[in-house]
Amino acid sequence: MLETLRATRYVMPLREGGSLPALVEADDDGIYVLKFRGAGQGKKALIAELICGELGRAWGLPVPRLAMMDLDPVLGRNEPDYEIRALIQSSAGLNLAMDYLPGSISFDPSANKVDPALASAIVWFDAFITNIDRTARNTNMLVWHKKLYLIDHGAALFFHHNWATAAEKHLSPFPQIKDHVLLPFANDIRGGGKTIAEDELRKIVGLVPDDWLEPEGIFSSTQTHREAYVSYLTQRLAASDIFEEEAIRARANLT
Does residue 232 register a pLDDT over 80? Predict the structure, then answer.
């Protein structure tokens, strides 16, 4: 289970993100990066953040700790910025928070070295979750105390934006992997592959709050909706050769 915290103070917006995340203080006196359910990218971005983040953590990848964050809209009553105030008001209830890494800097491939084994595991992971957001233009990685951290997985799992075509999406080779910022460092992509038991995968998907699973018109219940995620991820894992070969081919084309 993820810890559930309560937001006690809105600190400041983080305007680098398209979904306008924010720094907030919680009832454990910690500072967190809060992703809002009412943001333009919607609840599916939070679902992708949660599932991918916890998958990464289960596989030993450096993802900051996640927590559920209960947000009272009264927190925004004194906020002078209308856009921020409206975002807080539309995000009442459970949102997703990530540990804030104070003093961290964005990963720079020209200045920061990456262990090839870790790079291979991250490239494999991003191909698996179809993460389009780990490019040189937008690395979505931070360096904190000389250690690499993976953040911002809201754009991954793009199959769930159209469940009608999701059945065949697990076979996608994910050609966008050619733009991955760590691809030049990944010398053993197939060796970076991971496995997970289906019951463990089901536990991770089970962390998604019921009210984030909006009616899709094709699911009879939230449980069948969850099972659709488990089924897709299980099938994609079984078909990993497809996206591994694409990533290996993309890396060969770099030289």
Answer: yes
Q: Are 196 and 151 in contact (CB under 8 A)?
A: no
Report yes or no: 39 and 45 within 8 Å, Cβ to Cβ.
yes
Q: What number of H helices and E strands is found in the chain?
A: 7, 8
At residue 53, the 3 state secondary structure works out as: helix
pLDDT in tens, 191-221: 999 999 999 999 999 999 999 998 788 899 9
Q: Which of 50, 42, 43 is nearest to 203 (CA)?
A: 50
pLDDT band at 37 (very low <50, low <70, confident <90, very high): very high
Contact 23, 32 (CB under 8 A): yes
**C-alpha pair distances (Å), 187 with each of 50, 125, 244:** 28, 14, 12
Give CA–CA dist 2/193, Å, rounded: 25
